[in-house]
User: Which sequence fits this backbone?
């Protein structure tokens, strides 16, 4: 199952530094270890754009030619049924969305710039030697951080799988 994880880091970091830090932290929690909770993860993934209401399916960088009709919008063989509008891969548009979205830099964002109603399934507070991991969080992230006096820093959107 995929689930939306947000990781709060106390310092403001750029994309590559933040993702490196997240990688170092998460490697202690692969499901082969005692406290493990994932078998795979990617920054962003199906939750990409959660910080800024970006829709990856509207981004030209995620659009590619339909591989079934090679972008023609009409399938040569077998002949398409009218219900499929020429191609069952693209409904005649000639394009399809990439299986893996291109990285979205705003998946690492200063907390202050993140949309106010961000919520997630798992929230990780990556502060101190051991991060605080809140599974089944299912609440709004920013009000919670504020109530814990965790101001500033940045948030990283992670697509986790277990
Ligand atoms: Zn097609």
Assistant:
């Amino acid at each position: 199952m995929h689930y939306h994880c947000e990781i709060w880091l106390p310092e403001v970091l750029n994309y590559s530094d933040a993702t490196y830090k997240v990688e170092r932290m998460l490697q202690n929690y692969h499901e082969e270890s005692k406290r493990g909770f994932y078998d795979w993860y990617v920054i962003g993934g199906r939750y990409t754009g959660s910080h800024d209401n970006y829709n990856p399916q509207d981004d030209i960088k995620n659009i590619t030619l339909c591989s079934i009709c090679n972008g023609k919008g009409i399938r040569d063989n077998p002949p398409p049924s009218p219900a499929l509008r020429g191609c069952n891969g693209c409904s005649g548009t000639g394009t399809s969305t990439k299986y893996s979205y291109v990285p979205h830099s705003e998946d690492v964002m200063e907390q202050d710039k993140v949309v106010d109603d961000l919520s997630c399934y798992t929230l990780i507070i990556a502060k101190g030697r051991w991060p605080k991991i809140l599974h089944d969080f299912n609440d709004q992230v920013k009000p919670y951080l504020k109530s814990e006096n965790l101001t500033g820093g940045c948030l990283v959107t992670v697509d986790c799988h277990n």
